[in-house]
Amino acid sequence: MSSHNLEEQFQQKIDQDIKIEPKDWMPDAYRKTNTRQISQHAHSEVVGMLPEGNWISRAPSLKRKAILIAKIQDEGGHGLYLYAAAETLGQSREQMINDLHSGKAKYSSIFNYPALTWADMGAIGWLVDGAAIMNQVMLTRTSYGPYARAMVRICKEESFHQRQGFESLLVLSKGSEEQRALCQDAINRWWWPALMMFGPRDQESTNSDMSLKWRIKRKTNDELRQQFVDMIAEQIKVLGMTLPDPALQWNATRNHYDFGEINWDEFWQVVKGNGPCNKERLEARKKAWEKGAWVREAAQAYANKKNTGTKAA
Ligand code: FAQ
User: Fold this and answer.
1) Does the C-beta of 278 come closer than 6 Å to ligand 1?
2) What is the pLDDT of residue 87?
3) H/E element holding 258?
4) Tens of pLDDT along 162-219?
5) What's the CA-to-centroid distance between 203 and ligand 1, angstroms?
6) Residue 86 CB less than 6 A away from ligand 1
7) Which atom of ligand 1 is nearest to the CA of 199?
8) Nearest protein Cα to ligand 1, atom 26
9) d(Cα 309, Cα 306) in Å, to the nearest integer?
10) Tens-place pLDDT, residues 5-18
11) Residue pLDDT, tens place only, 105-163
């Protein structure tokens, strides 16, 4: 069959919402952009363990510590499902990790900001996981089967993450003056970086056109960002706190909240590697990879031994 026909049939499947599976024919660019997005998503989950990991030893109670450990462990698990989903497209995990370590592959800008106080654990759960879910609920319907299925499971866990973050902030918001100030300060610092998680404005989003045509993405960066603002602008009222945006206002004509301009210069600086913690995060990942070499070697030796044993039997 000619490649033109194959492409036509492929697009028909996409238009009928039939999932694309690993062994199906797909255009090279579809394979490439899915590998890019899924592996970057996996890197984000794993690098995303670092800001919260910083607070495990300083959690204020045993209960909070247990919750935080469970959440961080979940993020590591999400990274694993996603690396496995990306591997089905033909790229090895080692290559993906090398690309992260060399700076070739991106990961979410948000994880290049520092977690300065305990209240940041609540703000990350509520705002960062909240933004992540907004995007990931859409991705449960993405066209590539293994990615969509990984997302269903991930979303279930992420919604628990968001709720625990909100509950943690709710406790602080009802506490002493000092606790309320910590809560407000964390919201102030995480709000704008959380909005940046959705990516550049639609007109600057280089991948969106193809990703929308192929139903990898089902909503645009700006649509999801607006949905997030509308949700958080209501939830903040329950906390009795404010969002650091004087332009935030309900617009009855648009039926959405208006909000202020994002600092796009800051966003691109962070994406290019010049954020507050970029170097620290990559160093931590490289160190973890080197320190884990003996675990990978032991697992490989065990697998080889088991294989030999099975063959002999
Ligand atoms: N940071 O053309 P677009 C989480 C890049 S998971 C860095 O619009 P696209 C869980 C983009 O890659 C959070 N780079 O790109 C958790 C592209 O460059 P490239 C991660 C960004 O792919 C919580 C260029 O800019 N979630 O948080 C960012 O169509 C708590 C142009 O952009 C996902 O990865 C950014 N924020 O749309 C874990 C979801 N935005 O690759 C621990 C899956 C854009 O061509 C603790 N990903 N860029 O060199 C997606 O949905 C999409 O990839 C977007 C970007 C929406 C992120």
Assistant:
1) no
2) 98
3) strand 256-258
4) 999 999 999 999 999 999 999 999 999 999 999 999 999 999 999 999 999 999 999 9
5) 16
6) no
7) 40
8) 41
9) 5
10) 999 999 999 999 99
11) 999 999 999 999 999 999 999 999 999 999 999 999 999 999 999 999 999 999 999 99
Nearest CA to ligand 1 atom 31: 205
The model scores a pTM over 0.85? yes
Atom number in ligand 1 closest to CA 224: 56
Q: Which of 30, 35, 37 to mutate to test the pocket of ligand 1 (most atoms within 8 A of CB)?
A: 37
pLDDT digits (tens, 9 = 90+) for 99-111: 999 999 999 999 9
Q: How far is the CA of 271 from the centre of ligand 1 (A)?
A: 10
Measured by CA distance, the residue closest to atom 40 of ligand 1 is 199
Q: 48: burial class by Cβ within 10 Å (0-12, 13-18, 19+)? A: buried
Cβ of 108 closer than 6 Å to ligand 1, yes or no, is yes
Whether residue 99 contacts residue 36, with contact meaning beta carbons closer than 8 Å, is answered with: no
pLDDT value of position 161: 95
Residue nearest to atom 11 of ligand 1 (CA): 199
- 201: three-class secondary structure by DSSP: coil
227 lines ligand 1 (CB under 6 A): no
Cα(264) to ligand 1 centroid in Å equals: 15
> Of 129, 168, 146, 160, whose CA–CA distance to 49 is shortest?
129
* DSSP tag of 251: E
Q: What pLDDT digit, counting tens, does each position of 36-64 carry?
A: 999 999 999 999 999 999 999 999 999 99
246 phi/psi in degrees, rounded to 5: -65, -20
Alpha helices for 143-244 (secondary structure H): 145-173, 177-196, 208-213, 221-239
For the record, the structure tokens of 48 come out as: 């995303």
Q: Which residue has the tokens 């697009």?
A: 11
Structure token digits, residue 65: 């510590």
Q: How far apart are CA 62 and CA 68, in angstroms?
A: 10
